[in-house]
């Protein structure tokens, strides 16, 4: 039997040379057409599958909300009063059996549901919360967080629930098989996780908006962002829908929302609290590590929470974190401190309201007997380089994998577009973008930040520079005798979402401490005044983007919260909390 090839060769075609070329061309066109047709069908199927997942998730969460509303319909307004209590007051009453865990839980559930109707800060209630609260009453021992409802950022896994990373369809319909370590420790200590809060798509955004759950509004001004990426947490806590929540921070994600919503937050040193069990996305980033921390309305709640978490059970579950118990003698210490004061990081000038906030904090600390001195970071050019190049070291592959073809929200679209290009084309595009941008605008929103690294050698070189710079700053602090530092959280206060995506390195005041891996606490100190607004005429704007910021705050911003960062050396969270406490107790901003 002849083979197919022999049979084909035996056929005689009486074709001219041109006809052969034409036939070959038709075959090529046919192949391309068939390939394009199948690819379009595949993309259409994928697009429809994404729509189906989003629809199902919205329906599932809507049903959870409706079920919870129905179960709380008979709750009296008197029960809701417990949401005004501090963590210390709640734990005292719960430990003394003046309040029951289920009573406190239902009060916060009802308050949270009411708040999310206007602010859209919750993604979904946690259905098992009531059963967990009932089970607590059967325990022989009460933990330090006994009966405390805790809100959880949509990044922190709980068994049976998706961790959607801001509604990325690649994560939908994939419930986690187990609790993350931090959830296990919280439950062990008596806490009750009761809601997941909203985050931006991919978490890489200073706004809080995603295509599945929508936009979270700022409780002080609904036209402004609540901040990102722990924006849902900050908005819920600020409005007393939660007494304690947890966020994560790799570039300011606890601190920016805390500042924008007027609450307190703590970004610990990476390695003080466990992130074991978290999604693998970004976990390979070793130069700038993700960290986990508490958020609350007062510093005392942060301190009580850290004390409850820093226990042997935590270290047994994750032996890779530092086994350091809470140093209460440092937190309660009376030793006068020497504190550096930074108004301008030489990367992006802070607006007058933020500078005034730093001055208020410095004055409060001086009145308590602390010494304050001006401070500037050494070798700011290296610091700027480390911030601009550290976040997309993998050339954005993790970012694109997470999106998996989803349409990105507005602030992320330029990055999605450029990162999707081949490396050579990307470099050409970035070069052209730089030609079109002024030098000042390049510093404000550096296009080089998404170039990534072309080799392992380049990455190692970057990590080595990062470690060397960290030690340079530590040595500088020790030479000056500095115990802690006070500085702005960002160059501005809360912005409208559209302006937030143009602010760029206005948020470098936060991300520089992720590069350094220093612990940082946030404490509100004042609100923007009319005088702050008038002083915006003196703001030294450079480039079109800073001018947009200037024009906005010359006309708006009055009444928005102003906060400061309290910074310490690695693993000195207790000292950071002490400085936060001193400022909050002295100023009593609200």
What does this structure look like?
- The chain is globular, with a radius of gyration of 27 Å.
- Helices cover about 45% and strands about 10% of the residues.
- The mean pLDDT is about 90.
- Helix 7 links the parallel strand 2 and strand 3 (about 190-195).
- The chain has about 600 residues and is α/β, with parallel strands linked by helices.
- It has an 11-stranded mixed beta sheet with strand order 1-3-2-6-8-7-12-13-11-9-10, sandwiched between helices.
- The protein starts with a helix and ends with a helix.
- Helix 10 (about 300-310) runs antiparallel to helix 24 (about 575-585) and helix 14 (about 380-390) crosses helix 21.
- The protein folds into 2 domains: about 55-320 and about 330-380 and about 465-585, Amidase signature (AS) enzymes (Alpha-Beta Complex), CATH 3.90.1300; about 395-455, no CATH class.
How many domain units? Answer: 2
CATH architecture descriptor text of the largest domain: Alpha-Beta Complex
Spatial order of the strands forming the largest sheet: 1-3-2-6-8-7-12-13-11-9-10
Counting DSSP E segments of at least 2 residues, the number of strands comes to: 13
Rg from C-alpha positions?
A: 27 Å
Helix content percent band = 40-55%
């Amino acid at each position: 039997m002849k083979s197919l090839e022999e049979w084909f060769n035996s056929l005689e075609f009486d074709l001219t040379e041109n006809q052969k070329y034409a036939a070959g061309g038709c075959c090529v066109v046919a192949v391309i057409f068939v390939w394009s047709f199948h690819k379009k069908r595949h993309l259409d199927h994928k697009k429809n599958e994404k729509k189906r997942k989003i629809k199902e998730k919205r329906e599932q969460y809507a049903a959870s909300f409706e079920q919870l509303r129905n179960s709380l319909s008979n709750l009296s307004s008197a029960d809701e009063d417990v949401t005004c209590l501090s963590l210390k007051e709640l734990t005292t009453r719960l430990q003394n059996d003046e309040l029951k865990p289920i009573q406190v839980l239902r009060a916060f559930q009802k308050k949270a549901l009411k708040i999310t109707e206007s602010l859209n800060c919750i993604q979904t209630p946690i259905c098992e919360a009531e059963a967990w609260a009932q089970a607590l009453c059967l325990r022989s021992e009460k933990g330090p967080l006994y009966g405390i409802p805790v809100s959880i950022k949509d990044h922190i896994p709980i068994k049976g629930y998706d961790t959607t990373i801001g509604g990325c369809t690649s994560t939908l319909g994939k419930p986690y098989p187990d609790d993350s370590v931090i959830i296990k420790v919280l439950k062990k200590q008596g806490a009750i996780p009761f809601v997941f809060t909203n985050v931006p798509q991919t978490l890489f955004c200073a706004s809080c908006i995603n295509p599945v759950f929508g936009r979270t509004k700022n409780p002080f001004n609904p036209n402004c962002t609540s901040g990102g990426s722990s924006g849902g947490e900050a908005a819920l806590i600020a409005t007393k829908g939660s007494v304690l929540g947890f966020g994560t921070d790799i570039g300011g994600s606890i601190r920016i929302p805390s500042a924008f919503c007027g609450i307190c937050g703590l970004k610990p040193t990476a390695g003080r609290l466990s992130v074991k069990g978290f999604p693998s996305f970004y976990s390979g980033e070793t130069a700038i590590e993700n960290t986990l921390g508490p958020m609350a309305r007062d510093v005392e709640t942060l301190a009580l929470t850290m004390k409850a978490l820093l226990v042997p059970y935590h270290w047994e579950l994750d032996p890779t974190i530092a086994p350091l118990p809470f140093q209460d003698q440092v937190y309660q210490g009376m030793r006068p401190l020497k504190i550096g004061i930074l108004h301008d990081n030489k990367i992006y000038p802070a607006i007058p309201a933020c500078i005034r906030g730093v001055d208020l904090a410095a004055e409060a600390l001086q009145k308590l007997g602390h010494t304050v001195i001006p401070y500037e970071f050494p070798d700011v050019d290296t610091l700027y380089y480390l911030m601009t190049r550290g976040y997309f070291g993998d050339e954005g592959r993790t970012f694109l994998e997470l999106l998996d073809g989803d349409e990105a929200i507005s602030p992320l679209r330029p990055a999605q577009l450029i990162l999707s290009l081949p490396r050579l084309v990307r470099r050409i595009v970035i070069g052209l973008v730089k030609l079109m941008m002024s030098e000042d605008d390049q510093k404000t929103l550096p296009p080089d930040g998404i170039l990534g690294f072309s080799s392992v050698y380049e990455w190692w070189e970057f990590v080595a520079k990062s470690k060397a710079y960290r030690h340079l700053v530590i040595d500088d602090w020790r030479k000056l005798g500095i115990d802690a530092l006070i500085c702005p959280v960002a160059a501005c206060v809360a912005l409208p979402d559209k302006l937030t995506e143009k602010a760029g390195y206005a948020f470098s005041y936060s991300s520089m401490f992720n590069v350094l891996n220093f612990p940082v606490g946030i404490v509100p100190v004042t609100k923007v005044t009319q005088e702050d607004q008038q002083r915006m005429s003196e703001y030294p704007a450079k480039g079109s983007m800073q001018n947009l910021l200037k024009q906005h705050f010359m006309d708006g911003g009055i009444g928005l919260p102003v906060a400061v960062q309290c910074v310490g050396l690695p693993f000195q969270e207790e000292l950071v909390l002490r400085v936060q406490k001193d400022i909050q107790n002295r100023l009593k901003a609200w």
